[in-house]
Amino acid sequence: MNHRINKLLNHPKYVEYLNKISNHEAGRLFCTHDLTHFLDTARIAYILNLENNLNIPKDLIYGAALLHDIGKWQQYENGISHEVASGTLCVELLCDAGYKSKEVDLIKSAILSHRNPSVEGTKDLLGIIYVADKLSRKCYNCKMTNQCDWSDEKKNFNISY
Ligand SMILES: [Fe+2]
Ligand SMILES: [Fe+2]
After folding, report:
1. Are 92 and 107 in contact, with CB atoms under 8 Å apart?
2. What percent of the chain has pLDDT over 90?
3. What CATH architecture applies to the domain 3-19+31-141?
């Protein structure tokens, strides 16, 4: 079912949203929200899935990871929290890519909770997306770490994956 991941990747609106974020983040010194971050998140979440024998389908993990920050441009333009913006924008993209409505609901929940520490450690899609998002960041090699608004608990000071 990996073709759904690639349908998502090639959706004209997905490409458009990635470009909008990239334009807003040109010259940004803090973490960026680009395909590299989305794939890092997807791959770490998939490793967590395998290590914990969760058996979550790959295209659910990649769907959530590829879309979790996709509304970041709306945060730059309108001040809408990007998890909320991403949770709204994901629906059309997922439906067009062939995800079923229950799968869309689950992915949307994971996107909406990706900044909510209460899902950290839960052995499900929400928990692994939350953790993978944080572990994907190279805080251990970041010049902006003192100005970053992430708490020290959220920051990733070690290589785990
Ligand atoms: Fe985010
Ligand atoms: Fe993220």
Report:
1. no
2. 84
3. Orthogonal Bundle (1.10)
pLDDT given at position 91: 98
Ligand showing the shortest atom-to-Cα distance for residue 31? 2
Predicted structure pTM score: 0.95
Q: Taking the domains of the chain in order of start, what are their residue ranges?
A: 3-19+31-141
Spatial separation of the C-alpha atoms in residues 141 and 161, rounded to whole Å:
15
The predicted model gives 83-91 an average pLDDT of 98
CB-based contact 112:93 (threshold 8 Å):
no
CB 119 within 8 A of CB 113: yes
Ligand at minimal distance from the CA of 86 is 1
- Ligand 2 centre to CA of 136 (Å) is 8
